[in-house]
Amino acid sequence: MSRKVSVACLQTRPMPDFDTAIDEALGLAREAVDKGAQFLSLPEYCGGLKGESGLFYPPKAPENEHPVLNAVREFAKANDVWVQIGSIAVPGPGDKTFNRGFVVDNQSAIRSRYTKIHLFDIQLSETETYLESGVISPGDEAVIVDLPWGRLGHTICYDLRFPHLYRDLSKAGAEILGAPAAFTKKTGEAHWHVLNRARAIENGAFMVSTCAVGDVPGGGAAYGHSLIVGPWGEVLADGGDQPSVAMATIDLDDVVAARRKIPALSHDRLFASASSRQSEFA
């Protein structure tokens, strides 16, 4: 089977409820399919997102009856495409919610689930604070999944700042690293491109990072600029600052070539931690 695949990042806006989220996602999905896309990627909280006083309140439903998940599964089968659902909200422990991503195959089957590990608890300024953990419960397991063209490693948004997660996924065989996001406009302008390029270069992998764009109902704004980045760090597609479809055809054999040129994954060495050395001489 060919290792080439046409990838489309569906850069949706944050929507307040299931119905508008479905309309937004499937509208761009149809555009991508018409352009020949085989693998579609949706952003974090593509199932809906609202904010209030720095807390996230995505509309949630159990997985087996989640309207957005079911709509995407039906679309994938009807159009013979695979889809990464960046994340939707499903019930977690107690009153908490899981921020969970999925990969759906072209027969509508769920091939993988990933629950976001690192939660966005950040104070950017005196007036801009986010506390994802106030509503969301974190996951604790890294996840990879086999696609027809290669292996994908799941991550979500704030995970992008934790390179050891991407190293672990790459050493487990991931050739595509997915980082669907709803990066804030402020942090996106400062760090989004460089973090994505760094994760690609460090691991000799493709980054497919679909980011929501525009105002979040209830406060905040998502940065957009969904990215497809090659294993040498080159930006192959950028979704800009409006709802859009960002596409590129990628060849997973490029990962093999990049890792052959710079075999950093096999050069990692164990070492004593800085904290242990500091205590030894204290």
What does this protein structure show overall?
This protein is of the alpha/beta class and 282 residues long. It has one domain (4-280): 4-Layer Sandwich (Nitrilase/N-carbamoyl-D-aminoacid amidohydrolase). The protein has 6 helices and 19 strands. The strands form 5 sheets. Strands 1, 2, 5, 6, 7, 10 and 19 form a 7-stranded mixed beta sheet that branches. β6 (97-104) and β7 form a beta hairpin. α1 (18-34) runs parallel beside α2. It is globular, with a radius of gyration of 18 Å. The termini are far apart. The mean pLDDT is 95.
Q: What percent of the residues sit in helical stretches (DSSP H or I)? A: 25-40%
**Terminus-to-terminus distance:** 58 Å
Q: What is Rg? A: 18 Å
Task: Quote the average pLDDT.
Answer: 95
- CATH homologous superfamily name? Carbon-nitrogen hydrolase
Q: Largest sheet at a glance?
A: 7 strands, mixed
- Supply the number of helical segments: 6
Provide the CATH top-level class. Answer: Alpha Beta
Give, in order, the helices and strands.
EHEEEHEEEEEEEEHEHEEEEEEHH
Give unreliable regions as ranges: none
In percent terms, what proportion of residues is strand? 25-35%
Task: Give the class from helix and strand content and strand pairing.
Answer: alpha/beta
Write the layout of secondary structure elements.
Elements: E1 4-11, H1 18-34, E2 39-41, E3 51-52, E4 55-56, H2 67-79, E5 82-91, E6 97-104, E7 110-115, E8 121-123, E9 129-131, E10 136-137, E11 144-146, E12 151-154, H3 163-171, E13 176-178, H4 185-203, E14 206-209, E15 213-215, E16 221-223, E17 227-229, E18 235-238, E19 244-251, H5 253-261, H6 274-280
Parallel strand pairs: 1-2, 2-5, 6-10, 12-13, 13-14
Antiparallel strand pairs: 1-19, 3-4, 5-6, 6-7, 8-9, 11-12, 14-17, 15-16, 17-18
